[in-house]
Specification:
Radius of gyration: 18 Å
CATH topology: Glutamine Phosphoribosylpyrophosphate, subunit 1, domain 1
Low-confidence stretches: none
Number of domains: 1
Number of strands: 17
CATH architecture: 4-Layer Sandwich
Strand content: 25-35%
Number of helices: 4
Structural class: alpha+beta
Helix content: 10-25%
CATH class: Alpha Beta
């Protein structure tokens, strides 16, 4: 299984505070084969288009979702999946049907339950609108579902899924009671704490993160842990090219990979005092 979360952020200052500033999808990196002892801690679970405003994440069964999402993103980037003039709901429906059709090509392949999250942005700032769907498959009854979720109207968690969801919610509650509760960084740091806690032995590895902003294509955000650099769960060796993407640590601070310190102008967040339990 896994721990998969998504949250939305707003800004109370500046132009149009009623409009979202970002949607994030975060996951752990552990893939297991029946137990914690059979695992790989560098598996990709979040995906983003490089050209169009779509981001995805999955939990549950590993093989099919991870493979089909790579194909979906490639089809989106090559502009062959749907026409630009399609509505957000039409685009999602095309993605949903394509995933189902791909699944039908399997023969006698073991598949467990799984969920796929899909976030999309129509138009750029200041006409931004965000959309969010939860696709699920129940293997025992062979049933598909696609639910369009209502987004919070202030910075908050959209959804928590997977075997580690209870732990994620517990740590989210602890951070919510702190002096930074309800901020975007509190959600990411709480998620990181949940993974580090070991509460769910089917979740582990380094967190991975992607973001959908009001402008520009989505971003894969690298995570810095113990002075090592990871992208989508995979460690990346030091080098000048690391500066090509955003990097954050577990306190959601922007890190400069050239200096391994806070990026110039980045806010020097510190870890708040946290109370135990909800």
């Amino acid at each position: 299984m896994t721990t998969l979360v998504s949250w939305i952020t707003y800004s109370t200052t500046g132009e149009k505070p009623e409009l979202p500033r970002a949607i994030y999808i975060a996951s752990d990196s552990r893939i297991t084969w029946g137990s914690e002892s059979l695992r790989w801690d560098a598996g990709r679970k979040v995906f983003n288009s490089r050209e169009r405003p779509h981001i995805f994440g999955y939990c549950g069964d590993v093989v099919f979702p991870s493979l089909v999402l790579g194909q979906i993103v490639a089809a989106i980037d090559n502009e062959i999946l749907f026409e630009k003039k399609c509505t957000p709901d039409q685009k999602h429906e095309c993605i949903f049907v394509t995933i189902q059709n791909s699944y039908l090509e399997g023969h006698n392949h073991p598949v467990k339950d799984f969920s796929i999250l899909h976030a999309y942005r129509s138009a750029a700032w200041p006409n931004t609108e965000f959309y969010f769907w939860h696709i699920s498959y129940k293997s025992k009854i062979k049933t598909w579902a696609s639910e369009k979720l209502r987004l919070p109207e202030k910075t908050g968690m959209i959804i928590s899924l997977g075997s580690g969801a209870a732990s994620a919610k517990n740590h989210e509650g602890r951070w919510k009671k702190s002096d930074v509760g309800g901020t975007s960084r509190s959600f990411f740091s709480a998620f990181c704490d949940a993974i580090d806690s070991g509460d769910d032995n089917l979740s582990g590895g380094v967190p991975q993160l992607c973001a959908l902003y009001p402008n520009l294509p989505p971003k894969s955000i690298g995570v810095v842990k113990d002075n090592r650099y990871f992208l989508n769960g995979m460690e990346v060796l030091p080098g000048p090219k690391l500066s090509n993407i955003e990097w954050t640590d577990e306190l959601f601070r922007n890190i400069d990979p050239e200096t391994n310190m806070l990026k110039e102008g980045a806010r020097p967040f510190v870890r708040p005092a946290l109370k135990k339990g909800l």
